[in-house]
């Protein structure tokens, strides 16, 4: 790779060819303010806040979208540049409602931060607020176009990373706004509720549906038994909301915090991730070894992915694992097995899930199977961000909390369960257990490095006693379509499927990069969260789901065996094609 | 893509045109032009059919359709009312005329009455500023217009 030499504010730096001025400046410790730019996305150069001067050129250039060239000398800050940036901010503010105090992004907003950094004290331009309706049609996210600064991130995420195309700039000039095609509601658009738009929006224009009020109400009700579960990815991200390092494992503090909030039973979705592996692993063996059912087997724990498949790839329905997601398996076990154990009526149990995910809010009512206990299996699903707010509201000093254990029996987990939080984790955990199910032996080395990491598509082949299992792992929907198109093609030609087993997660990096996680995810931060996940795996007493003693007990006491009729009743679901744009 | 099937017929000409143009750059605008030529506007069903024929996501189609004033999403009425919003007309009460039309017809800008008789558009300067405020109905110019003249004008065109 050839490099070029440039100067940023007279500081010399050598960078790779093609590097933008913005990145080159970062390398010498110079911060150029940005608003529309996001490292996950192609530079859109919409806002103009990042303008800089280049010596010998009369024009100001946008640092986020301008690559450096040999000998370039850049000035990033002088009074004129700062004045231009200030004007840009003031103009944006003139179209932006200034109700920060009531905004979901208060104290966490990139526009607010810029206004503070630039010391904006008055509004020199007349208000040009837009009167646009709020879209609350989905259970997952809220779109409030009045607050939109037209940075384009959400549309880019939805189109480029997710290949969903729910959102687009609609209209022109003063009327331009972000909306689904033809001003229908998001609910009637192809939106898969992944919430990646909300995780990338710099302001309070797209955000998660806030369901914390329902949780508080249940917690205050003395007749309710409040039970809660936390997802794998929450434990390596929640700390960020309290100023801790990304990837810090805060599982024990979360259990403590949940008890202090008033939950009666504190469980861990990692347990039901182990359970998912038992069901899905057995399903795989059924199909792969015994030839009962379609190959490849495709994972189904991500509800956004399920929604996408039902909308865009309904021909793949027979390939889908019928196993419910860990969230739903846990809830079914809470309201049947556990409720029975402690002698309460499932409908007087209030079950809450804490998820990295906005889509899980949708999943809890997505079909009949989500009511397997006789009432709604999960009453409310909140995101990591919402839990952080609840902990703050309750005056809990999170960082200094002691670490407690989860409750038994639905709180015990193995490394196989915890790695569900990262892309490749479900595949790795499934293979650890599949190996055992086929051979009766344990894998010598349980670390399947090939399926880990942030490459968009990972392929591997695993040898199970002389039989080759071909697997693929994809995350971010735009990568998934490439894998599935290969499968479709092979089918059309009547060839062997290119893979036997495919794992899909809608979000980049898997759930650690979920749409409900603390703000600010970039690949650097995703890698830290992933490192936390594998650290948790490595320090687990058991690494494979089938070794979980509580899982063994659950099958002995209640479920009989994987894919038994009891399992089918509580742990499996169905899929239906959902054609899009019916409105 | 599992976009719902739609029931709308394109002429063979239009289908051939789309077949030729769908692989070319800048194609979307050209194809939409032809659709508007055929239907007088871009019906939603036609936009959906276009996504079937080309694989272009519907959101992108709408992004383009709404970006250009030229494209219409509403079926135009039998009689087209254009209200001038050039500077002179605007200052002399063009906006009041739009308001009054809304009172009389129950529709705003870029909408069509339910009986499909009238549609209202706001247009840039039509070039007779001396006559401000101006409206144009089916190509006929009405200048120095007062609100209370509107019912008469509407009645005249409705009869045609
Ligand atoms: S939630 Fe996901 S699919 Fe829906 S609009 Fe946002 S990015 Fe697109
Ligand atoms: S909704 Fe948010 S992300 Fe989307 S364009 Fe507006 S400000 Fe940007
Ligand atoms: S990858 Fe995880 S966080 Fe993202 S939508 Fe799927 S389940 Fe939710
Ligand atoms: S950050 Fe560069 S133009 Fe917006």
Which secondary structure elements does this structure contain, and how are they paired or packed?
The complex is a heterodimer of chains A (583) and B (160).
Chain A: E1 3-8, E2 11-16, H1 21-27, E3 51-54, E4 60-62, E5 73-75, H2 79-94, H3 110-117, E6 141-143, H4 153-161, E7 168-170, E8 177-179, H5 196-200, E9 206-208, H6 212-220, E10 225-230, H7 251-261, E11 265-268, H8 269-288, E12 297-298, H9 303-312, H10 326-342, E13 349-355, H11 359-363, E14 380-383, H12 384-393, H13 415-418, H14 425-439, E15 457-464, E16 467-475, H15 477-492, E17 501-505, H16 523-538, H17 549-559, H18 565-571
Parallel strand pairs in A: 1-5, 10-11, 10-13, 12-17, 13-14, 16-17
Antiparallel strand pairs in A: 1-2, 3-4, 3-5, 6-9, 7-8, 15-16
Chain B: H1 12-21, H2 27-39, H3 44-54, H4 58-67, E1 79-84, H5 87-91, H6 94-105, E2 111-112, E3 118-123, E4 135-137, E5 140-142, H7 150-159
Parallel strand pairs in B: 1-3
Antiparallel strand pairs in B: 1-4, 2-3, 4-5
Can you describe this structure?
Chain A has 18 helices and 17 strands. With 583 residues, chain A is α/β, with parallel strands linked by helices. In chain A, a hairpin with a 2-residue loop joins β1 and β2. In chain A, α8 crosses α14. Chain A is globular and about 75 Å long. The mean pLDDT of chain A is 95. Helices cover 44% and strands 12% of the residues of chain B. A five-stranded mixed β-sheet of chain B has the order 2-3-1-4-5, covered by helices on one side. In chain B, α1 runs antiparallel to α2. The N and C termini of chain B lie far apart (46 Å). The mean pLDDT of chain B is 89. The chains are: A alpha/beta (583), B alpha+beta (160). At the A-B interface, β7 of A face α3 and α4 of B. Bound molecules: iron/sulfur cluster (3 copies) and FE2/S2 (inorganic) cluster. One iron/sulfur cluster (SF4) binds next to α4 of chain A.
């Amino acid at each position: 790779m050839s490099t070029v030499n440039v100067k940023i504010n007279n500081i010399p730096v050598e960078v790779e060819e093609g590097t933008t001025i913005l990145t080159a400046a970062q390398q010498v410790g110079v911060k150029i303010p940005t608003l529309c730019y996001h490292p996950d996305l192609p530079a859109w150069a919409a806002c103009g806040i990042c303008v800089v001067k280049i010596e010998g050129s009369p024009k100001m250039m946008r640092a986020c979208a301008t690559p450096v060239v040999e000998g370039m000398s850049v000035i990033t800050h002088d009074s004129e540049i700062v004045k231009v940036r200030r004007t840009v901010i003031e103009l944006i503010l003139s179209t932006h409602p200034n109700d920060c105090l009531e905004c979901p992004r208060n104290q966490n907003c990139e526009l607010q931060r810029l206004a503070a950094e630039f010391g904006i004290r008055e509004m020199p331009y007349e208000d040009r607020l837009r009167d646009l309706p709020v879209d609350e049609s989905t259970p997952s996210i809220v779109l409030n176009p009045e607050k939109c600064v037209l940075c384009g991130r959400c549309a880019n995420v939805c189109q480029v990373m997710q290949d969903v195309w729910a959102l687009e700039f609609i209209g022109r000039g003063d009327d331009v706004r972000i909306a689904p095609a033809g001003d229908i509601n998001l609910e009637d658009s192809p939106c898969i509720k992944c919430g990646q738009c909300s995780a990338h929006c710099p302001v309070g224009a797209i955000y998660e549906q806030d369901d914390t009020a329902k949780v508080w109400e249940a917690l205050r009700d003395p007749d309710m038994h409040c039970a809660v579960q936390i997802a794998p990815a929450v434990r390596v991200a929640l700390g960020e909301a309290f100023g801790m390092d990304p990837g810090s494992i805060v599982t024990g503090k979360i259990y403590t915090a949940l008890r202090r909030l008033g939950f009666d039973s504190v469980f861990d979705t990692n347990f039901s991730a182990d359970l998912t592996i038992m069901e899905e692993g057995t399903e795989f063996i059924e199909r792969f070894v015994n030839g009962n059912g379609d190959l490849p087997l495709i994972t189904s724990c991500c509800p956004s992915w399920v929604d996408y498949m039902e909308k865009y790839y309904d021909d793949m329905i027979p390939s889908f694992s019928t196993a419910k997601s860990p969230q739903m398996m846990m809830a079914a076990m809470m309201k049947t097995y556990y409720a029975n154990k402690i002698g309460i009526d499932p409908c007087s149990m209030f079950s809450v899930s804490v998820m990295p995910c906005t889509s899980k809010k949708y999943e809890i009512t997505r079909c009949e199977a989500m009511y397997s206990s006789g009432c709604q299996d999960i009453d409310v699903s909140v995101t990591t961000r919402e839990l952080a707010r609840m902990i703050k509201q309750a005056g809990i000093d999170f960082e200094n909390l002691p670490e407690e254990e989860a409750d038994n029996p639905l709180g015990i987990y193995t490394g196989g369960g915890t790695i569900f939080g990262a892309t490749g984790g479900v595949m790795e955990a499934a293979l650890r257990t599949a190996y055992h199910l086929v051979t009766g032996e344990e894998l010598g080395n349980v670390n399947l490095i090939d399926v880990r990491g942030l490459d968009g598509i990972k392929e591997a082949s695993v040898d199970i006693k002389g039989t080759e299992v071909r697997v693929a792992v994809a995350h971010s929907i735009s990568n998934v379509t490439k894998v599935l198109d290969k499968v479709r093609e092979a089918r059309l030609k009547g060839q062997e499927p290119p893979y036997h087993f495919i794992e899909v997660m809608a979000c980049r990096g898997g759930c650690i990069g979920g749409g409900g996680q603390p703000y600010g995810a970039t690949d650097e931060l995703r890698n830290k969260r992933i490192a936390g996940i594998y650290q948790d795996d490595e320090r687990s007493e058991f690494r494979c789901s089938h070794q979980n003693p509580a899982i063994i007990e659950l099958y002995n006491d209640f479920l009989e065996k994987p894919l038994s009729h009891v399992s089918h009743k509580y742990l499996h679901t169905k899929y239906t094609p959902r054609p899009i744009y019916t409105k | 893509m599992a976009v719902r099937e739609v029931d709308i017929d394109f002429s063979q000409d239009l289908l051939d045109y789309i077949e030729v143009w769908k692989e070319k750059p800048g194609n979307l605008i050209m194809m939409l032009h032809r659709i508007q030529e055929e239907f007088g506007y871009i019906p939603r069903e036609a936009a959906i059919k276009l996504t079937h024929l080309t694989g272009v996501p519907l959101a992108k189609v709408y992004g383009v359709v709404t970006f250009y004033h030229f494209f219409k999403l509403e079926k135009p009425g039998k009689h087209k009312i254009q209200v001038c919003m050039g500077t002179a007309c605007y200052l002399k009460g063009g906006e009041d005329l739009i308001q009054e039309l809304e009172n009389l017809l129950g529709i705003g800008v870029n909408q069509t009455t339910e009986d499909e008789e009238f549609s209202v558009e706001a247009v840039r300067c039509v070039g007779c500023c001396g006559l401000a405020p101006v409206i144009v109905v089916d190509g006929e110019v009405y200048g120095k217009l007062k609100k209370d003249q509107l019912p008469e004008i509407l009645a005249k065109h409705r009869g045609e």
